[in-house]
Amino acid sequence: MPIRRFLLPALALSGLPGGVTAQSSPTVPDRDLLQAAAVLYGAAQVGGTIRDWCLSRAPGDRAVIEQGFAAWQVASGVPQLEAYLKAAAPEVLPRLRALAGERRAQTEAALDAGSASPRDDCRAIRAQLGTYANLAQLYPAEYARTAALRQGTPAPALVGQPTAPAAPVGNGGLFITGTNFSPFNRAFVLKVLGAAGGQAPFTAGGPLGPGAFRCVREDTDEDSTPVAAYRYTLNLYGDGGVRVVQASVRPRSGAAYDLKDEAGTFTYDRASGTLSVTADGDSDVLEDLIVGAGSYDSLIRKVTLFNFFRAIKDRSGRRLLYGQQAYGAQADTTQTVCTPAGAPVGVSPVEQERRARAEEARIFNLYRAAPGQGLKATQIEGIVHGYATRSDGINVLGEESVVLLLKDGRAYFNLRWTPSDLNVAASVKGEPGMWGQWRRRGAALEVKRGGTWAALPGTLAVPGASPERLSGDFEFFSAYTSGTLMSGATATTRVTYSFRPDGTYTLRGGSAVYGNLDTGATQTTGAAVGSDPTRSGTYRFDGYTMELRDHAGTVTRTAAFFWDRSKTHLYLGDRSYTRQ
Fold first, then answer.
1. For 199-220, how does the pLDDT look when each residue is reduced to its tens digit (9 = 90+)?
2. Residues 446 and 499 grouped into a single domain
3. How far apart, in whole angstroms, are the C-alpha atoms of residue 338 and residue 275?
4. How far are the Cα atoms of 382, 397, 399, 404, 446 from residue 389, in angstroms, in the given order?
5. pLDDT digits (tens, 9 = 90+) for 448-479
6. 226 and 185, same domain (yes or no)
7. Rounded to an integer, what distance in angstroms lies between the CA atom of residue 402 and that of residue 544?
């Protein structure tokens, strides 16, 4: 990014000319400290211009840019500089911000001229800011003068006034090591924890068993003014499940209201005390964005309640959870303290999911016979396969139907596995509504499922030979767009079976979500791509049965057939694959 020769003048011009005054202060401020803080803060505003330039040139990398910029601000001590100036000379802040604004066009033009690849430069924005907006190198004297201030040690705002001694870190003992408290200083964090009943010194990490915590969270804006207060109960379960219940929020203006429960899983690092949560998206505060500590998105204001990141223990051994976030250039902040509230209540979402899967498997296999102990080939007339499309907004969806016809005139409408594994007697007794009758009417087929006969759409499928040898790739692909093409998300799935005549196969699959958000002023794009593990093994395709045996020893038996004699489309399991 060869732009240093362009940025240095802009940075130099960001300093205050002619010194600083504090007209609203009743006594005289420490002018040297105030001047140094103002020069550094003014220079740092050009970093905000670089961030905004990156967001407009590389909108798809918003998260990386915001995280890098926030990290640079923290490392440079910008939040502490702003807090000091806000207390000592608040009228200076608009002037400093205006200086960078006046030169915004000039700075952006220099960035355009000096960048061969804006996206590459912006993905490494923290390194670029550290090189071209390095406050220590640009203003070494001012940087040294403000060292204590930038590190979070309270500085005296006025000369001649008594200065309170700095609060001892952890009351003289170990504090929460490795934690970045900016824009809060440690004395403030100690005060917050003390208000929750914590007794210094505090240490991080150690064992964290299952339990419930009562949490209080406060959001503040860039002026440290409370914006909203949240209260909720957090349940941590022994199997790694986590659930938030009884959540409510009281905004700065308006009435309080309740939030939906949230559920997910958590991981815990005993050494550092770091608690990380992966939450679902089925919540009014999670449906748009799940953010981690320190991340920011100015377009979407909904953030998860799972913002804590440290489990700590106080002097008495009492376990607390403490968390904070700082959002981007605006220095909006969130802080949370959770105190013990007994044993976790209710069932863990992990256990709920396990029970749901077990029940689903029980129902799925309820009418399944032992392998090969179901219908014989001589009992089967055939399988009728139907395919149709329907519109759903801008999407065109393909829908398949499968009806099993028996030689005795019965029809089965719920085929979930190979007919050779179907327990007919159990199915007729347990799911009678899935059975009907069929008949020929000229060249057409009709079925009766209830009181009347109706045409049966579709064609008779073609079973595999004994055995059928396949060669080549058969692929399934689907795509679905939510919203619009200009502002929405598209989810895709692609699964490919590669069959070989020697009776071996390889299965590859993956999914992706592509998002696009166009507000009229800005456009943000992004993608999340995942892939399933590649599996391989041997196959046997005989009649209407495909048996897959992978190298791990797992055997899968499922329904399989071709749509027609061209053998272009292979129905396998519950969907069709097309020869490539």
1. 878 888 889 999 999 988 888 7
2. no
3. 13
4. 24, 5, 6, 21, 21
5. 998 899 999 999 999 999 899 999 999 999 88
6. yes
7. 12
